[in-house]
Fold this sequence. Notes:
By secondary structure, the chain is an all-alpha fold. Helices cover 85% and strands 0% of the residues. The protein contains 5 helices and no strands. Helix 1 (6-83) packs antiparallel against helix 2 and helix 1 packs antiparallel against helix 5 (161-184). The radius of gyration is 33 Å and the shape is rod-shaped.
Amino acid sequence: MQPLSSDSLTVHRSIGSVLVAALAVLALVFSASAASAFAALVKSNGSLDQVTREITVLQDLSDAVNHTRTSRVWMVQASVYGSYGMFKESAAALATARSKLADSRSAFGRYEQSAKGPAEEPLARVAAQTYAAYLAEGLDPLITALEAGQPAKLHQHPAQPHTRAGRRFRESRECRADLAHRAIAPDAG
Length: 189
């Protein structure tokens, strides 16, 4: 074997330098790609967190409505049981109605505590007013009448305030849901 000449050592060094430079470029490209992917993941995670918060707020509002509906159904059931002399069943249905009403108040309380944007605040105030009116004019008097053993009052009120208040509450809830939908998907509205 012959010793390497200075020309061949220069060629080997040139090839080594090119390989090191290529590896450095690949490392830079990989690092830039990883940093870009990380930034995109952080941004995506923030967007998902925002959507999750918005869904949770709407879920609390929806739960409040669903629990009031369920409570009304149980109130009617308690009235029916009472009219047939099934007082034990009537008391159980009334207890369930009270429980569902408490669940509704809890869900609406969570909704009221949630963060709202400037455009949402007026809608949240309207929802709170109509929800309070729905309970005060509608469901609370109904449950009081049933507890007092006067189920006929359930059907006697000529103006049906619980129906009017419920309609106003539903309309304010639908406005809030529409606003949330436009905030999540601005191009859809």
